[in-house]
Amino acid sequence: MDRAVSTARAITILGATGSIGTSTLDVVRRNSDRYRVVALTAHRDVDRLAQLCCEHRPDYAVMADPAAAARLEERLRRDVPETRVLGGAEALCEVAAMPEVDTVMAAIVGAAGLLPTLEAARAGKRILLANKEAMVMAGALFIQQVQRGGATLLPVDSEHNALFQAMPAAYVPGWGRPEGVTKVMLTASGGPFRTIPLGKLSNVTPEQACAHPNWTMGRKISVDSATMMNKGLEVIEACWLYAMPAHDVQVIVHPQSVVHSMVQYQDGSVLAQLGKPDMRTPIAHCLGWPERIDAGVGALDMFAVGRLDFEPPDLQRFPCLRLAQDAWRQGGTAAAILNAANEVAVQAFLDGELAYSDIPGIIENTLEKLTPGDAGSIQRILEDDARARACAAALVAGQPGRRMYL
Length: 406
Ligand code: NAD
Ligand code: MG
What we know:
- By secondary structure, the protein is α/β, with parallel strands linked by helices.
- Among the domains are: 9-156, NAD(P)-binding Rossmann-like Domain (Rossmann fold); 157-190 and 228-321, no CATH class.
- It contains 17 helices and eleven strands.
- The chain has helices at 3-7, 19-30, 46-56, 66-79, 89-97, 114-122, 132-149, 158-165, 206-210, 219-227, 229-242, 280-288, 302-305, 319-330, 334-350, 359-369, 378-397; strands at 9-14, 35-42, 60-63, 84-87, 103-106, 126-129, 152-155, 181-188, 249-253, 259-265, 270-274.
- Strand 6, helix 7 (132-149) and strand 7 form a beta-alpha-beta unit.
- Helix 10 crosses helix 15 and helix 11 packs parallel to helix 14.
- The protein is globular.
- It starts with a helix and ends in a 9-residue tail after the last helix.
- The chain binds nicotinamide-adenine-dinucleotide and magnesium ion.
- Magnesium ion is lined by residues 157-159, 234.
């Protein structure tokens, strides 16, 4: 039988219109005999999702925003009548768990991705995890659902993917600590403000914060990279994925973004994964795993790279990293509170309502005001997420000297 018919993987892409979604579809396009797109989802970008539906002709297209779903339906009725349009947050969960789907790319940004990603775990899918916020908010529940549902958890985040590639051969994340591993080292570029004088941070603009020196990404994660909250979230993500305590997860600033992370073994070996800073490499690794497939990424030229530098993170410059490490130590829903406050503060900064340098204060004050609860309950996680959002929004609104920065 034709290989395309017999073995194509059926895939749902949550967050298809985003940076990771776009890179995923690029890799899918290069390997079109291996994948069949069953569902594509987006928040409210009707034009972009309509375009993607015309090209990939999925069985389902979901807009999280119901009004946008109605507009998409009208648009597709003529051009792609075979695509069924669904709307609303529940539909995201539906297409993540459908029996005909075997692979789910979890690439929604932020807390909005939590429930559909949990659904994919419960339904035993092969989950390509980009949505780190889901793991940060509900790591214990997520790992529990992966194990109960028999899901396969493959990390897309470049650092965690690098760690996975450097782990013992038979090891898969989500099923306990890898044998013989003493430490993992997460590399961080240091973002666009690694060397800017500290006094200038209060005046930086969203455009400057989103101009990452090495990676092209969505706006939220770009700001997280500038504050290094991204690395804080990634420390928590690594603790859950690899069942390691935070003191075995070391953060190392590596401005070139060539070494994507490293695993240290008890015999003194350190294994690293290197590559160009292009998310299509980790995405292709997860899509093809355990095989290797074409990612469209060129070879790494070590002479052009020339040198690799490593330095410790400066916690005075990057207080968000410390806040995330503290929240992890605190336990319970503290990480969900941290994540929610960060989402609100970052959005306020992007909207010109908060100074960049006030982002850490909003998160710290929210964590001080709220008492974390039991992270074994999804209800409590969602309640604390909502409480933290309300608290952080009030703090943003009450910010002395608040002004428009755009
Ligand atoms: P993005 O902003 O470019 O795209 C986000 C996607 O999520 C879009 O398709 C958008 O429509 C969808 N979305 C947004 N809000 C939604 C909502 N309320 N309901 C349903 N869908 C919603 O973001 P991105 O850069 O692609 O990042 C996606 C995830 O991957 C994030 O969790 C990020 O931390 C992680 N990640 C991204 C990169 C990268 O290079 N971009 C690298 C590592 C990890
Ligand atoms: Mg990363």
